[in-house]
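Honest question from a wet-lab person: if I give you the sequences of every part of a complex, can you actually get the arrangement of the whole thing, not just the pieces? Trying it with mine:
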Amino acid sequence: MGAASLLHGGDLAAARRLFPDAPEPFIDLSTGINPHSYPLPQLPSEIFARLPEPTALDRLTAAAAQAYGAPSPAHVVAAPGMQILLPLVAALIPPGRAAVLGPTYSEHVRVAALVGHRAKEVTDIGPLKAADLATIVNPNNPDGRTVGKDLLLALADELRSHGGLLVVDEAFMDVGPAGASLGDEVARGNIIVLRSFGKFFGLAGLRLGFALAPADLAARLNASLGPWPVAGPAIVIGEAALADCSWAEAMRESLGRGAVRLDEILTDAGLEVVGGTSLFRLVQMPAAVELFHHLGRAGILVRHFVQQPTRLRFGLPEREDGWNRLRMALAAFRS
Amino acid sequence: MGAASLLHGGDLAAARRLFPDAPEPFIDLSTGINPHSYPLPQLPSEIFARLPEPTALDRLTAAAAQAYGAPSPAHVVAAPGMQILLPLVAALIPPGRAAVLGPTYSEHVRVAALVGHRAKEVTDIGPLKAADLATIVNPNNPDGRTVGKDLLLALADELRSHGGLLVVDEAFMDVGPAGASLGDEVARGNIIVLRSFGKFFGLAGLRLGFALAPADLAARLNASLGPWPVAGPAIVIGEAALADCSWAEAMRESLGRGAVRLDEILTDAGLEVVGGTSLFRLVQMPAAVELFHHLGRAGILVRHFVQQPTRLRFGLPEREDGWNRLRMALAAFRS
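Yes, you can. This is the full assembly:
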């Protein structure tokens, strides 16, 4: 279908190559990144010029510990994006069996194999129990499935009995069920929670992510990342945004309304929404590939999954114009 | 001496704790970072908001290949700072003997040991030949010693005969001798060159660094870093700065004049300058600790080395006021 080059979301240049006659501006609905970014503060030039100071990094990890419910800043690892943490986390235990609850974000299996694990995707939680490295994306991408805290803690207990590590990718937990994060449980010893800053705060270009981990594993991750893991602008913006509870609360409500509106538009067009979070919705349909191309020709990029060919993921449009173009393009597909 | 907490340069908060009565503004001469930063372009908000696109990263690696003389962009790995590359590079070969030509940047030995090597600092180039991982900082930090290209290539040949890897840290090569970089030799197969963007361009807070490597090793490093290794602002600024040859040429001349001026001030004060580059100068003296404290109380932070207690490294002041305060503080120490 030519879309295999669109391995991840967000690649508008590839979309323009695939759909050279599409109207501009191209609308990118292919990611689960909040289109309503946290407002950027003034960034003094010394933030770019000087090496970030340890005390600034300390303030960032303190804000992250508070926002994500970690027991203390000693349980927080700040990194230039969550992605770069994946091989470091997977390498915390010797090569063994890695199991990822899927279908989900494809990088978990790729990276686990890269660091030497025998890695596979499994379709239910049972086979995770025997793994050395068990990974669950919660809420899951792209279907939004959530696994309850009790079930996760029981899984962690079972893993601990044979030295296994549980990794919970909470990249979309900012819009997940209240109280569902495992961030407050990482002192148990074999649980690592991964958090993405850029998705909910709409600042994916900043590259900022976190691991919440037992203190000894957090120290090992920090030792790998070295003394200046996060850029100056990401420290300043991250600290401000993570402490801004009122923005987060209002944004969660706003995104919730956006998701309802998106569901209405999708179902009005005869599509079946089978899951998602309030940052993205998942549609299942036999003609998913055809709709991907139809929307692409209309200048709207959605996410198609090579491994899940009957599914499309829709992010939220940023502006009214985007909502309208999506509604009209879907109507034209239907008719 | 209380300065052990100043493990790396650039930590003004630690300096203020150590010298609470120092006049402000504190002047930071403790790093080798250019105080005259590359002018920041306007950064559109979408650079922060969206995931960096693969084509943007391609443009950055192409600019880096050109600027650093790599055979092609396939030999370039872009990373969020050079530091984060150290463990990835050290882990390219199985745990063995790592030797670092020292005294030098302390992170090389720390990181080599971290990934499992038996790591030690050696004082001449001979013992490097038998190592599995041989690291040379060129020009060296803090003494500015340079190793000639012929010698490095002979060392690489000898290492290759038993599967050894040569890592050349060229963090300060932007102000090194013309033609001394090994960037154009990385296709030989066992040479990796590390480049820092932030030091010469005065943008250390941006976190941007590169490895120049054989194509197969570059691919392995890129696989570890994953699809979005560098932040949007770093891509945009890095691409522009690396392509700006006239800025670089003028800056090299200006820094050279600054280094001459700094030497004059230091020698006028009776100090002996024993090495450096035009981004920093190295002073050797029995009373190095006392001068560190004297300057600290005057609100001037220089770099003292716990492992090299008779040495101080001086960076270039940014403004006339800084030059004057340095000159006066040195005169007061002498009298």
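Two things worth pointing out. The first helix of chain A runs from residue 12 to 18. Chain A has a mean pLDDT of 96.
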